[in-house]
Amino acid sequence: MFLVITIFIAVTMQSIAQNNLFSLSQRLSMKVRTIISMAVHDKLLSMNLALSNKVINEGKLLNLISNDTQKLVDAVGNFHFAWFSIFEILVVSAFIIMEARASGVPGVVFVLLCQPIPIVMSSGVRKFRMEAIQYTDERVRMLGDLIAGIKTIKFNGWTDPFLQMIGRIRDNELYWIRRSLCMKFLILVLKDGIVPIASMLIFCTSAKIHGHLSASMSFSVLALLGILSRVLNFAPTGIQYAGEALAAAERLQCFLRVSNYCEDFTNDKVSTHADTSVSISKGNFSWNVPECKEKNLLSTIDTDSFKPILKDINLTVRRGQIVGITGAIGSGKSSLLLSLIGETNCLEGACMVERPVAYAPQQPWIFNDTIRNNILFGSKYDPPYYEKVKTACCLDYDIEHFSASDDTEIGDRGVNLSGGQKARISLARACFSSAQLILLDDPFAALDPKTVSHLSQYMLRGILQGRTVVLTTQNYRVLDCCDKVFMMDGGTLQQLPRNNQVLKLFWNVKSDNDKEEDREIIDFALKHENFPNQSLTTVVDSQISISLPLTLSINEHKDAQNLNISVPHENSKILDSSVWKEDDTQKNDFDSFFNVNSQDLSYIGGFENSEMPTHSNISGQCVNEDNGISTTKEDRIEGLVAWKTLKRYFKAGRYSNFLLVFGTFICTQAARVILTYWLAVWVDNVFHFQLGFYAGIYACIIAGATLFSASRAYVYSYTTCVAANTLHREMTNGIFYSPLLFFQQNFSGRVLNRLSKDQASIDELLPITAQNMLENIVGCMGSIFMITALVPWFLLTLPPFISVLFFFQRRYTAVSRELKRLDGISRSPISAHFLEALQGLTSIRAYKMEENMNKRLANLLDRNNSAVILFQHVSRWLSFRLDLAAAFCVTVTAFLVVMLHDHIAPGIAGVILVQSLQLTGLLQYGVRMAADTENHFTSVERICAYTDLQGERPLRTAISLISDNWPTEGRISFINLTMAYREDLPPVLNEVSFEVRPKEKIGLMGRTGSGKSSLVLALFRLVDNRACNGSILIDGIDIKDVGINDLRQRLSIVPQDPILFNQTIRMNLDPFERHTDTELVEALKAVQLFNKIRKWDKPLDAVAGGDGIEFSVGERQLLCLARAILRRSKILVMDEATSAIDVQTEDSIQNVLFSELKECTVLSIAHRSRTVRHCDRFLLVTHKGRVIEIDITNALQMS
Fold first, then answer.
1. How does 635-662 read in b/e, with b if 16+ C-beta sit within 10 Å?
2. Is pLDDT of 569 > 50?
3. What CATH number is associated with residue 747?
4. Beta strands 1131-1135; 1161-1165: pairing state
């Protein structure tokens, strides 16, 4: 009885020590995760743009902070099994030798000799892991690119080819993941074989020496071997975690040890020149990074690519000056500004720049927060000055119409803002900062003339008066406001004379004939259109302005004129009959369209091209009207993991495969139970046979168990990989076939978290945890069957024991499951933060906001750690109670054996004790693994939520509805079209009806929020819900009956935000591979881009954004134009397609377009009249989504 009590005390003490070990290890692992995340973040923010472009991308960054960091975290908690197992193996081996004497030596030696094998196999796991992570990086990076460019993907109907490309990457990734899983399971198979073989060696030796087997010795050794089996089960796990952590540490170390080549420009460097803000002397700058040879992150760069992009730059800017820089696309304007803030590498010369710097990039960086926080960007809120900045940057009108004013939340990357709104918020951020040096990279490209004029007067010559401004622009009127004007040409900088005539000649200002033509067009409208009580003026220069005034009425401007106009209805066709009625209510729907300044040609109002209408830019698309929240709250299912989730997983891996898996598990455990029973038969010599008979049967059972175990490893790894791949494919299909609204309501970090972290959990963690659970559950069933068959009294103790176990398990699961879900939800903002930091690297570094970003990350990590630490404490709560229950079960079983020793043979008594010890361990660990498996199934649950997203329909067109070359004419008919972005929002287009004839060139105009881009979205069916009524016919066929892929692949668009994917030039132009190399080259030549890439051996296979090829925004627009030329669609939409292109290049491109695409119907949205002056007609879209047509040809004839 004393020994029975001693067993209980020993098991309890073991539990206390073990749980304290786990608790301390888990706390340490959480600290390790936080430290690594902060270190990666610090390193990221310390890199200049030239270095970060070579070193990191979204996929690698997410893998570093999620998968690689998690490997180190897991190693901290599990590596102890590796080193402690050596000590435990030695102690257990000593006990075995003490019990079996000389007979135990062969078995112990065999076990020790086999120990290096798992270590060698673990190195294989590490190798496979390194191979898999390369493809994981590539897959996540590409998924991030697709999410960032989702509008381009949908506009062009490219979903299928890019999903196929992701599928190919995924197949390669899964190949190595499967090999890694197989190797892990084979290590477990090795464990399943080592211990039985060692026992056979010991028993055969003992039987040979003593002539028989002693029951006490045999089952004592078997119990010790059972302990050794558990040790050998944990030891490979620790070794595997250590190996994977080593591979992850190499990748993290490689990233963290990259040298920072950027020079820190500080105030001290210009302190000797009190009146100088910028001083560059003979500066040569390059995008390339010297000695980029770090494995897995940096590639060796060709020596030819070290040529400087900026050569012999000499620039001096005095404090308080406004300096303008202009030049052709790709000449180096943006590179010069980035060089001023240290984002390129200075190869030669001296560069001194005043700090701090405010920087507005050409593509504005907008982060997921409120409008106010985007403007303040860490600065102290000063209400009076804040209001001045809003007014100066033309934001008053927009903010007033947002649902929560400036507390309205902006979506991920500013997806629910127009291009002009993003540009003006970026300008406001620069203006509000306390920096004395302001760098503006072509912020006026997305703005209309009146807004540009307002910014020139109230921003450049207003609130920025006295501060130093260096800006790049293609706008002649902005250059006219500058104290100095420089021209970039091929990476060199030269100053232009400060003479208006010289500037006009350089800038190719329109000829008098062109101006007169514009004047005739506008004069005709002014004379003949009847818009009561409206102030209309014209701008007769290089641009036409059509807009509502934002903050300043025309009468308030010293040179403005009010002109009333009327147009006879016979010459101005009213497209929407519901627009024009004689009552004042309808007439007041219209605001000023044309604004003329007769003398100094300065612009007043706030018209710009809009991605989305103002009243739906934020509130209309994805913002709660009441609280101004842009993104939806992440979905979180509560309660038990539903059976349908398990069913989806089984279905994904195929039911037949899982049945085979369960069969191999049962057969493996049956062989183990039979092995233990056969030992009892051997000990009692039931059949009175010789040693060879018992040993032979024993060896055959071992061989069968090992064979079943190996089969289980292969089938199980195959099945889990099939399930993981199926779920990944369904999730990516669900995501990328979802409507555009889904991406506006879910920031990219949230989506990528499921595509990376949750997918990694299904790929690797779930299979291992579920395998341990199944093995333990089947083992429990085998032990219970064995003990019950030998001692029926054991059934009396089993029900209360199992009830207690599952009571604790349900209590634990109810809490841990929700904590695991909270962990997943609170982890998404961390991923989003890293992605935002990567996207806004230049702005963060320019504004010196690294510390603020670090604090923000620390807060996000603390929030996530709260869920993690609670989960760990709950796990320890369960573990200790399971250990106590197990100790009680072992004590009761031992007590029964003692009480019934007269009725139980020694061999049977040994079997019972060994099986009870195994049963308690199996039940305890099995219940824990069952709970952990359910927790990992929350990842399946989260992925299934995305597989069930409602997609766009139909994907394919009904047979025979359209011909292979549809549309053949290019006729577009809008019939009573009403469109709303959501069913619960007001319409942005109201019963619009008009027709575009074949081959017509239409200029689409209107103020912000009028619905120009809404028409385009409706044409491409990017917005399609039950609130959308009416029809759009193309060549007489309703587009609702045409599959979305067929529709979008038959139309072409050049978007305002040109997106290039980090793929080859060929893939960016022709993802379906339908065109020959000759056709691709001709398209590139037509847009004057081929010379940029021709120096490569295979220019079409060069990677955009890689291989040393960096495209400016204007060059990206040209590449998008090349896509349109290649497709030769009958219908082309150009949405500010040349806004970032200089006028000389634009003129030549326009000539090419009108010659190459003369057979096409073209809808062109533009601000510059030179872009639309060749159009046949104008469509004017009012601020309430109504459309008016002015026939320019008839207008000119009439005038």
1. eebeeebeeebeebbeebbeeebbebbe
2. no
3. 1.20.1560.10
4. parallel
